[in-house]
Design goal:
The protein has about 425 residues and is an alpha/beta fold. The protein contains 13 helices and 21 strands. It has three domains: about 120 residues, Methylthiotransferase, N-terminal domain (Rossmann fold); about 220 residues, pyruvate-formate lyase- activating enzyme, CATH 3.80.30.20; about 55 residues, OB fold (Dihydrolipoamide Acetyltransferase, E2P) (Beta Barrel), CATH 2.40.50.140. Helix 8 runs parallel beside helix 9, helix 9 runs parallel beside helix 11 and helix 12 runs parallel beside helix 13. The protein binds S-adenosyl-L-homocysteine, iron/sulfur cluster and FE3-S4 cluster.
Length: about 425
């Protein structure tokens, strides 16, 4: 049968979809050209914000007519959304035509349930909270020249607004030997960039091995490749990691370090375990020690009780930290989290703040980009769009270059930057 997977949410989910695809391929299913040609449709969902959830539910609902007309169509809903308390029952009530609901921890059941479903049109709902972090997984990767590699699963931080620890469970780190073997296999297979994945990679720990050890171990190879990692947490990102990055030619000089807010009062309510001064110190240490480093972040507006003064502190942080990019979010209460019972601010206040925040960050983003004009930088070519090749600098800036010679996706190339467009740059290949 032909499958089609729709992915919502973070990179973790994008990679999980690669694993789902691998699993389905292994069982003889084929990738569908599009959703309309698929016999199996998998929704790999996210519930980090209300909007993510609504989008997925809307798309599932839109299949009702098609499913009624085609009883052989198999619809599976998997991923974070399904792990919420009572979700499976709720989904069964609203969309009884959904065939399979699976939690994030038991995706390996999918092929078997499809098989059962195919024969008996049975409905199976399976959820549990155990995860075998070391189980070998066949992965159908689609992100060449980059490959995502999980180093850990789950989260222990319980930021007061966040549903991830509830739906993904506690932190489990993979064995260093397994991670190293996977990466060495990928590099031998021609991958040029490895991105380590975890909700808080800095708290990676397997027996006596910590993140610093893992990073330096992975980076020590004669092969030319780029090593990235996400996401870091300011409370755990230590100076030791800075030293490892500084002394390695393979580890990228780009750190994604979510700040969330610039107000100490709000950071405390968020249970983030750092102050804005500590964040600023860390940012300064990164900039001072890692030559050419860029810092990106996540920022949230409209957390319960946030005042204009609190919000001004976030704007201040944007100015102060010179973020190359910021992913900006409007707070959305998530059932079961600590902040869900606090009074939600009005939609007007949130809208006004997100608009002002985006405007302030856009100015900084543009100024960072303008600083690259005239420079020659190495890019790794990742994509081809409209006759142009698109790559990324070591420190994470996107660069679009007119295709001219024999360059192709997966090549490293030197580019002279001619102009900048907010978050991206344009250039020409050097030596042509
Ligand atoms: N583990 C990472 C990413 C978590 S999810 C981290 O700790 O930063 C990605 C981003 O979604 C978060 O950084 C946060 O800014 C945002 N987010 C999480 N919960 C949210 C909520 N309830 N409402 C709005 N944004 C939220
Ligand atoms: Fe959520 Fe905080 Fe964990 Fe990130 S560190 S996943 S924001 S609880
Ligand atoms: Fe990621 Fe969304 Fe789950 S952000 S961890 S897919 S809730």
């Amino acid at each position: 049968m032909r499958y089609h997977i729709i992915t919502y949410g973070c990179q973790m989910n994008v990679h999980e979809s690669e694993k789902i695809a691998g699993l389905l391929k292994k069982h003889g299913h084929k990738e569908g050209v599009g959703i309309d040609d698929a016999d199996i449709i998998v929704f790999n969902t996210c519930c980090i914000r209300d909007t993510a959830e609504k989008r997925a539910l809307g798309n599932i609902g839109a299949l009702k007519k098609r499913k009624n007309a085609d009883k052989n169509l198999i619809i599976a809903v998997v991923g974070c959304m399904t792990q919420q308390k009572g979700f499976a029952e709720k989904l069964r009530a609203v969309y009884p035509f959904v065939d399979i609901i699976l939690g994030t921890n038991n995706l390996s059941l999918l092929p078997r349930l499809i098989e059962l479903n195919d024969k008996k049109n049975a409905v199976k709902i399976e959820q549990d909270d155990t995860y075998d972090a070391d189980a070998p997984v066949e992965t159908f990767r689609t992100s060449y020249p980059n490959a995502w590699v999980n180093i850990m699963y789950g989260c222990n931080n319980f930021c007061s607004y966040c549903i991830v620890p509830y739906v993904r469970g506690r932190e489990i780190s993979r064995k260093p030997a397994d991670i190293l073997a996977e990466i060495s296999f990928l590099l031998d297979g021609g991958y040029k960039e490895i991105t380590l994945l975890g909700q808080n990679v800095n708290s990676y720990r397997y027996e006596s091995f910590d993140f610093k050890y893992l990073l330096s171990k992975i980076a020590e190879t004669d092969k030319k490749f780029r090593l990235r990692f996400m996401t870091s947490h300011p409370k755990d990102f230590n100076r030791g990691v800075i030293d490892v990055i500084k002394s390695s030619k393979n580890i990228c000089k780009h750190i994604h370090l979510p700040a969330q807010s610039g107000s100490d009062r709000i950071l405390k309510l968020m249970n983030r375990s750092y102050t804005s001064a500590q964040y600023i110190d860390l940012a300064a240490a990164i900039y001072d020690n890692i030559d050419g480093a860029l810092l990106s972040t996540d920022l949230m507006v409209g957390f319960p009780t946030e005042t204009e003064e609190d919000f001004d502190c976030t704007l201040g942080l944007v100015e102060r930290c010179n973020f190359s990019q910021a992913f900006t979010f409007v707070y959305s209460p998530r059932a079961g989290t600590a902040s869900a019972n606090m009074p939600d601010l009005s939609a007007e206040i949130k809208k006004s703040r997100i608009t002002r925040l985006i405007k302030a960050q856009n100015k900084v983003t543009k100024a960072v980009s303008d600083g690259f004009k005239g420079k020659t930088l190495e890019i790794l070519i990742e994509d081809e769009r409209d006759g142009r090749l698109v790559g990324r600098t070591d420190n994470g800036r996107l660069v679009s270059v007119e295709k001219s010679g024999g360059q192709k996706i997966g090549d490293f190339a030197d580019v002279k930057i001619l102009s900048s467009k907010s978050a991206s740059l344009e250039g020409v290949f050097v030596g042509e």
